Amino acid sequence: MMRDQNLSDWIKFMGTAGARFVVSRQLRSSAGTWCSLQGLNILIDPGPGTLCHCFSSRPPLDPEKLDALILTHRHLDHSTDINVLIEAMTQGTFNHRGALFAPADAIESDEPVVLRHTRRSVERLELLEEGGRYRLGEFDFVTPVRHRHSVETYGIIFNLPYGKVSLVSDTAYFPELAEYYAQSDILILNVVLYSPPPVKWIQHLDLNSASVLIRSIRPRLAVLTHFGMSMLQRNPDALARHLTGETGVRVIAAADGMKLDLESYY
Predict the structure, then answer these.
(1) Could you state, in order of their start, the residue ranges of all structural domains in the chain?
(2) Would you state the CATH architecture of domain 10-265?
(3) DSSP-derived secondary structure letter, 11
């Protein structure tokens, strides 16, 4: 697909909720993240309410114009609307089109979150894997490492003509993480927790581990999103300002409906 030169690349955070209580109480929207990149429309992690938020967005976002859907993992706050978005992308499954990228356990497990009849309607289905590289139009994205999470989970690095835009999806912190996302120009971090998790089975980034990653990677811009209750209680905007002073990197907190114009940061 040739790119319309009048288009600019942007990301819209339709939802910034992380963890089950913020989602179930809808203290923040749990809709997915819409990316307009090099003339392609890509939706990442369509959690509960994504379809409705597409149409309530200003201006509305038409899911029939999606070119690809990406699931970083199968958890409900990331995948609940995946089947209805596939139906929308494929015009009710009657038009064999679009791409779906997802971990194997979202497709092939005993309890797949992507249903058989919807997955058959996409033109292209690719399973994400560690070190995978996937072509989308005139650019590609990679899934550099399997994250440390309770299900198969991957982050994303979009390799765009002007730089690297990375999304670090849900994961426990581990020291090598910064190496895998090195040279990211824009770094989007799912920061669910304010403090380190009290038990090992809670595998999410906290504010301090986000600070470590930002200081190690030193992107042009870091964006915090996917907030749990402890982050919301302490005001994500204030925490982002604190990290800006602490790291020397511009850090902002995403808000529901926030549109990030990517090329303005290069």
Answers:
(1) 10-265
(2) 4-Layer Sandwich (3.60)
(3) E
